Amino acid sequence: MPTLSSTSLANRDHAVLWHPYTQMQTAPLPIPIVRGEGSWLIAEDGTRYLDGISSWWVNLHGHAHPHIAERVSEQLQTLEHVLFAGFTHPTAVELAEQLLALLPENQARVFYSDNGSTAVEVALKMVLQYFHNLGQPERRTFLCFRDSYHGDTFGAMAVSSRGAFTQPFWPLLFEVEFIDVPVPGREAEVLAQLHTALTRPNVAGFIFEPLVLGTAGMVMYSPAVLTEMIRSCHQHGVLCISDEVMTGFGRTGPLFASSLLTEQPDIMCFSKGLTGGTLAMGLTTCAAPIYEAFLSDDKMRALFHGHSYTANPVACAAALASLELTRAERCTQQRQAIEDAHAAFRREIEMLPGIRQVRHRGTILAVEYDPGEGTSYFSRLRDAFYQLAIDSHVVLRPLGNVVYLLPPYCTTAEELTLLYGVLRQMRELVLDFLPAPTLPEYLHD
Ligand SMILES: Cc1ncc(COP(=O)(O)O)c(C=O)c1O
């Protein structure tokens, strides 16, 4: 770890910056990263850290990827930005055309914004104004998963779990109807909850993280039950928003998690991997009937939402370059290799003591450790896990007792071996945390 005396960049940071999700009084100094290369982040002092979580799930093809860098650089020298009301530009059109050709067939329009939270805000506004424009403004309740996370802006917080992080804002968050996540074994129960919720008047939309709830601890559920849920919503005229901010661009195996569904969402949200992890950008896509509900001679029916950097040409260029890499055969092979390696590792550890459950879909692997009864161990354990990873020169961000891998697609077999090694060491740490087992009677003396 850097120390106050040895790391000038960390010192300068400490004097002027305020970091996200960080208790600034007690957090150790940040590690100053000066370069990225493939799956590695290189610190000011030359230490190399393996990025096991794609820098908060954004990076797809490795850091400072030359192809993306080249396209971004070309775009910077051609057109860095132009306002997107009354104007358009080639990369925005090209990206929308390419994405719509890849997305589920019903997706017809692309609305650009800045990040995952704004992509979600736009989706929520589309749903609410859709019903407003149709003359049903009373339809404004959203259904959401109890443990979901959709971002940090107010609308996104409102449709997310009422967890400790949002507690100061609870009084200002609009009310929603929560349902449980239909994890394996609980499908019928949750479908019943959904059916009850759908009988309430004024339900407008159902928003969900498809197949994997990231922040909840990589909680996974099946495409079959999600298909069933969307179908039920549609039978009640409820619009469905698939938040693919984390799952998009190959994370769950196919290009989009929604590709595994047989009933399609009406609205989809993207960010993170959209630009391959190069620039901040979000986008929301929707089916034709939603777009058409905003068409009118009356200006007030338009979607009055926009950001200064909407459809930034440089971000669009990065997204086009990243999409080209994602669609190449090589990337499919890389993702398959990671998926196979995860499956083998899962088989190796899932039955061992200290492991509660191992979950796996596509390039995402989550190990839920079993620290015994006392959940009070969780925060201590989380910090111990984090430190163990950093000491092993690996970047991981444990979610309580869940440690997950979500590596860039260029991560090699050797690099995965290193990551699995850290997960094995974490199991040993958990075994040390566990209270000593009581010995059977006959073993005493
Ligand atoms: C599913 C999901 N939606 C939305 C967001 C918010 O994205 P951003 O951090 O870019 O605002 C996240 C971020 O982790 C996410 O995982």
C-alpha end-to-end distance: 46 Å
Mean pLDDT: 94
- How many DSSP helices? 13
Tally of strands: 16
For the largest sheet, list the strands in their spatial order.
4-12-11-10-7-5-6
CATH fold-level name of the largest domain: Aspartate Aminotransferase, domain 2
The biggest sheet amounts to:
7 strands, mixed
Binding site for substrate: 56, 149, 272, 306, 397
Keywords: Aminotransferase, Biotin biosynthesis, Cytoplasm, Pyridoxal phosphate, S-adenosyl-L-methionine, Transferase
Catalytic activity: (8S)-8-amino-7-oxononanoate + S-adenosyl-L-methionine = S-adenosyl-4-methylsulfanyl-2-oxobutanoate + (7R,8S)-7,8-diammoniononanoate
Family: Belongs to the class-III pyridoxal-phosphate-dependent aminotransferase family. BioA subfamily.
Properties at a glance:
445 residues; Aspartate Aminotransferase, domain 1; Aspartate Aminotransferase, domain 2; 2 domains; 37% helix; globular; binds pyridoxal-5'-phosphate
Explain briefly what this protein structure is:
The chain has 445 residues and is α/β, with parallel strands linked by helices. It is built from 13 helices and 16 strands.
Describe this structure in words.
With 445 residues, the protein is α/β, with parallel strands linked by helices. The protein has 2 domains: 9-64 and 330-443, Alpha-Beta Complex (Aspartate Aminotransferase, domain 1); 67-327, 3-Layer(aba) Sandwich (Aspartate Aminotransferase, domain 2), CATH 3.40.640.10. 37% of the residues lie in helices and 16% in strands. The protein contains 13 helices and 16 strands. The chain has helices at residues 8-16, 54-57, 66-78, 90-102, 116-133, 154-158, 187-199, 223-235, 288-292, 313-327, 329-349, 377-391, 413-433; strands at residues 33-37, 40-43, 48-51, 107-113, 141-145, 177-179, 203-208, 212-213, 219-220, 239-243, 267-270, 282-287, 355-361, 364-369, 394-395, 402-405. The strands form 4 sheets. Strands 4-12-11-10-7-5-6 form a 7-stranded mixed beta sheet, sandwiched between helices. A 4-stranded mixed beta sheet has the order 1-2-3-15. Strand 13 (355-361) and strand 14 (364-369) form a beta hairpin. Helix 3 packs antiparallel against helix 10. It is globular and about 65 Å long. The N and C termini lie far apart (46 Å). Residues 439-445 have low confidence and may be disordered. Bound molecules: pyridoxal-5'-phosphate (PLP).
